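Researcher: Let's do a round of design. I'm pasting the structure tokens now; please hold your answer until I've finished.
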């Protein structure tokens, strides 16, 4: 029997309600109803005034006061709206678990774009990224070489091949669109690939 789960998760200071990326995490456990999942995706995730945009997904919604709060000399700092690889990975898993394959595909594409922007310019894999600009070097507390930033690129790999806990090994994406790998070069020191959507 499926439990009824609230769509908004209340976190924040002084008991304030905050709409955060955590709202999609309950989709991984598949404990929300189809209606709740549809509302989370359509009303919140794909809403450009909250989470959707060129660079996805901010840790708090773009219309939350914490997102534009000026802290430590910077706006969009650390958990106040930055993009985090582990968050994107878990949101992507939740989308696929609840059957939002097209949205997961688009989400993976935008996540790769965040990763590629810093990688192609500086060869950095950041801890977190600015949700407005996609930059990782814009704040002092975003580590330049942080392993879980690579989860943003891994979402693209999952569009080619994935091992799913409920379905085994899968080749190709769940959405049905075409993907390909170009310029795959292997030498003694270098391995490079570009995933093309």
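Researcher: That's everything. Go ahead.
Model: Designed sequence:
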């Amino acid at each position: 029997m499926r439990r009824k789960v609230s769509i908004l998760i209340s976190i924040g200071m002084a008991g304030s309600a905050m709409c955060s990326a955590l709202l999609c995490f309950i989709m991984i456990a598949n404990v929300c109803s189809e209606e709740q999942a549809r509302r989370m995706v359509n009303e919140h995730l794909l809403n450009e005034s909250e989470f959707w945009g060129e660079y996805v997904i901010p840790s708090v919604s773009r219309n939350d006061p914490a997102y534009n709060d000026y802290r430590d000399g910077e706006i969009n700092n650390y958990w106040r709206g930055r993009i985090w690889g582990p968050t994107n990975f878990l949101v992507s898993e939740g989308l696929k678990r609840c059957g939002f394959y097209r949205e997961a595909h688009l989400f993976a594409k935008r996540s790769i774009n965040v990763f590629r922007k810093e990688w192609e310019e500086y060869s950095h894999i950041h801890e977190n990224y600015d949700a407005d600009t996609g930059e990782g070097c814009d704040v002092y507390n975003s580590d330049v070489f942080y392993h879980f930033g690579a989860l943003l690129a891994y979402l693209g790999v999952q569009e080619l091949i994935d091992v799913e806990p409920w379905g085994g090994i899968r080749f190709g994406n769940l959405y049905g669109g075409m993907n390909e790998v170009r310029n795959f070069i292997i030498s003694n020191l270098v391995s490079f690939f570009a995933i093309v959507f």
